[in-house]
Design goal:
CATH topology: Purple Acid Phosphatase, chain A, domain 2
Radius of gyration: 17 Å
Distance between the termini: 24 Å
Number of domains: 1
Number of strands: 16
Order of helices and strands: EEEEHHEHEHEEEHEEEEEEE
Strand content: 25-35%
Shape: globular
CATH class: Alpha Beta
Helix content: 10-25%
Length: 243
């Protein structure tokens, strides 16, 4: 298996997933504007998520891949029922940043994206509600809170989901450190890749705790391979073999 290769033709570059045959980059769970939500609750936190995502893409991803398509796999913004001022400005600026690196951007609706219409209309972008089939690789990208029913999903050989925010905690005698991670395994007759979130506000949930948010991992994922993202991508093997 090639370096960074999760499944044949699917590669991890930083927190982005590269679908080689389609020259498509998938990123998930940006949660732009999350700091303003905390501020509205009286919790003051520094606003670093937006700049950290741009830096990560600029230093870890775009030097390695030149996508024709960038797929934002859900939860572009954070607030459920409104578009905050911070979200509006950061989302527009992020989309314009991404447009410099590709020919088209596809937005897939996530559970936090109940109000994306005005943003998509402003930038002349379309929104996919169930997901997107990348035709050359037969990879179906969907956020992951429900199982699609479309013919395109049934046609797919591989499914890519976000939503779960998987992470892995590495412990020694003196400390514990947590890393975002990819999970690669099976969902029925299809291969499945679970993406880490690209937001830098939180790491995520340790996959060994077994907590799941959507239906794709409900039947267990102990046999899934774990790929932790640190200075590079590390293959830790099957989850069930980790202490």
């Amino acid at each position: 298996m090639k370096e960074n290769e999760l499944l044949p033709g699917l590669f991890a570059f930083g927190l982005g997933l590269w679908v080689e045959n389609d020259r498509a980059l998938v990123i998930a769970d940006l949660h732009l504007g999350i700091e303003e939500m905390f501020s509205s609750q009286g919790i003051l936190v520094p606003r670093f998520n937006f700049l950290a995502i741009k830096k990560h893409l600029g230093e870890r991803v775009f030097p390695k891949v030149k996508p024709e398509t960038i797929v934002i796999n859900g939860d572009l913004k954070h607030e459920f029922g409104t578009i905050s001022g911070q979200e509006w400005s950061e989302v527009i600026e992020m989309l314009r940043f991404l447009q410099k690196h590709c020919k088209r951007i596809v937005l897939i609706r996530g559970n936090h994206d109940t109000i994306l219409g005005p943003i998509a209309k402003w930038e002349n972008l379309s929104i996919e509600r169930e997901g997107l089939l990348l035709e050359k690789s037969l990879v179906f990208v969907t956020h992951g809170e429900e199982i699609p029913k479309s013919a395109a999903f049934k046609k797919a050989k591989t499914v890519v989901v976000g939503h779960e925010h998987p992470a892995l905690t590495i412990r020694d005698k003196h400390r514990a450190e947590q890393f975002k991670c990819f999970l690669a395994g099976r969902f029925g007759s299809k291969s499945l890749v679970v993406m880490p979130s690209i937001n830098h506000f939180s790491i995520g949930t340790d996959a060994r705790e077994g907590n799941t948010l959507g239906p794709f991992l409900k039947k267990g994922f102990g046999k899934f391979r774990v790929f932790a993202v640190a200075d590079k991508v590390y293959d830790f093997g099957p989850l069930e073999n980790l202490d």
